[in-house]
Amino acid sequence: MHQDHPEVFPQRHTMSASGGGRRALRVGLGGPVGSGKTATVAALCRALRDEVAIGVVTNDIYTREDADFLLRQAVLAPERITAVETGACPHTAIRDDISANLEAVEDLEEQAGPLDLVLLESGGDNLTATFSKGLVDVQIFVIDVAGGDDIPRKGGPGVTTSDLLVVNKVDLAEHVGADLDRMATDAAAQRGGLPTVFTSVARGQGIEPVAAWIRERLARKAAGAA
Amino acid sequence: MSAALLLLADGRFPAGGHAHSGGAETAVAEGRITDAATLAEFCRGRLHTTGLVAAALAAAATAGADPLALDGAADARTPSPVLRAVSRRLGRQLLRAARAAWPSPALDRLGAARPRGAHQPVVLGVAARAAGLTPLDAARATAYEAVSSPATATVRLLALDPFESAAVLARLGPEVDAVAEAAEAAARRALSEGLDALPAASAPLLDIGAERHAAWPTRLFTS
Ligand SMILES: Nc1nc2c(ncn2[C@@H]2O[C@H](COP(=O)(O)OP(=O)(O)O)[C@@H](O)[C@H]2O)c(=O)[nH]1
Ligand SMILES: [Mg+2]
């Protein structure tokens, strides 16, 4: 059993030059380097692209690798994928100074819209990096079992406050000696009822609960807007 | 000195500057910045060329010159297409932050007239006016940005001792003030004589470096 953050679509002061109107649900995906954020974005695109219009913003630290990977995988049409350069400081670009990311989202919606869903992948950072509420409506934090099964216990803003915690690469658990039960117990204790999902995205396992969680958010947004 | 100036000039003001190196990334890669002494030389060169021009544009905007005419004057003084695009992008980002901080019809009008972004110094000048600052304040903030951006970036690029970087900026302080005063004087002349009276100093190596930098496949900073 779990509960969600009460305030799902906080008031935003994005001060865009263009006017308001319909806009997509913005979902941030954060987490350490290599935990599987890009793989999760790709899997979510495949799971949801026939139902809703999706755009993706990647934040690459010093290349366009993630955007290029998604383009190569052809998970979306090229005009639906855009990259933001974060200037050596990925957490600044999603939290302290979100202007470049806001612009990327607005430009995507203007040029490829109307969109229902925009997925923003942060440049991999440490466990304290979270998205500003001025940038995203909800955020998913992606960690993996190989990063150490004590990460949920250690907590930190990503683990404790993200709207959905994804623990990826469960296929590696036996190889790295990670105790999944303990991770689940620790996550539950840290997150005060917020949901956690275990996945093996590269093996195509576990993405459906994540996709369902996003569908639920989309439905809520549609209901709120109606 | 007003607190609004401190906010506008604060490197943490959320206007996109953190992703840019002011040309330092190219200069480091090409061996022109290697330590505190060469960083100081680089900053001095930038301050007296594009720094002066930007500060004068900003001061003129704060003094009430037509922002769209100034935007054209900025284009004419920015030969590198890459740097023109960078300046407009930073202008767009600064406009968003400034509209939140100091709501004003002048900022709204500028955003409506240049939805893809006006040149950053022009936006800064209009924002300074909206914040109740003077043309000299706007020139100071802009001239300071001309040196603080490469100095901050060099701390990350070279792992330069941050105290040395701060000392470089402190030693450049009097020159920054002098450039700001010259820029403000030029802005005043431009109000009576026309925008051609604004300085047009340039730094070809910054222009060439920016064009090269934009073609790198891998980089830490956007410019
Ligand atoms: N074994 C395993 N590898 C995975 C899984 N998900 C992603 N990977 C691999 O982990 C590496 C990093 O994934 P990526 O999505 O690029 O991580 P990001 O840095 O968080 O975006 C890649 O080599 C992926 O193929 C998984 O569920 N299991
Ligand atoms: Mg990635």
From TrEMBL, chain A:
Region called Disordered, residue ranges: 1-23
Residues that coordinate or bind GTP: 31-38
Family: Belongs to the SIMIBI class G3E GTPase family. UreG subfamily.
Subunit structure: Homodimer. UreD, UreF and UreG form a complex that acts as a GTP-hydrolysis-dependent molecular chaperone, activating the urease apoprotein by helping to assemble the nickel containing metallocenter of UreC. The UreE protein probably delivers the nickel.
CDD domains the record matches: UreG
GO CC, any one term: cytoplasm
Subcellular location, record wording: Cytoplasm
Purpose: Facilitates the functional incorporation of the urease nickel metallocenter. This process requires GTP hydrolysis, probably effectuated by UreG.
GO biological process, one term: urea catabolic process
Swiss-Prot/TrEMBL keywords: Chaperone, Cytoplasm, GTP-binding, Nickel insertion, Nucleotide-binding
Native source organism of the sequence: Actinacidiphila rubida
Sequence ranges assigned to domain CobW/HypB/UreG nucleotide-binding in this UniProt record: 27-196
Gene Ontology molecular function terms on file: GTP binding; GTPase activity; nickel cation binding
Recorded name of the encoding gene: ureG
InterPro entries in the cross-refs: CobW/HypB/UreG_nucleotide-bd, P-loop_NTPase, UreG
Protein name: Urease accessory protein UreG
Keyword Nucleotide-binding found: yes
Location (main, coarse): cytoplasm
Matching PANTHER family: UREASE ACCESSORY PROTEIN G (PTHR31715:SF0)
From TrEMBL, chain B:
Any one cellular-component term (Gene Ontology): cytoplasm
Cellular localisation: Cytoplasm
Membrane-spanning parts: none
Principal place of residence: cytoplasm
Any one GO MF annotation of this record: nickel cation binding
Entry annotated with the keyword Nucleus: no
Keyword Iron: no
Keywords per UniProt: Chaperone, Cytoplasm, Nickel insertion
Quaternary structure, from the entry: UreD, UreF and UreG form a complex that acts as a GTP-hydrolysis-dependent molecular chaperone, activating the urease apoprotein by helping to assemble the nickel containing metallocenter of UreC. The UreE protein probably delivers the nickel.
Record's function text: Required for maturation of urease via the functional incorporation of the urease nickel metallocenter.
HAMAP family linked: UreF (MF_01385)
Protein family according to the UniProt entry: Belongs to the UreF family.
Protein name: Urease accessory protein UreF
The organism of origin for this protein: Actinacidiphila rubida
Lineage: Bacteria, Bacillati, Actinomycetota, Actinomycetes, Kitasatosporales
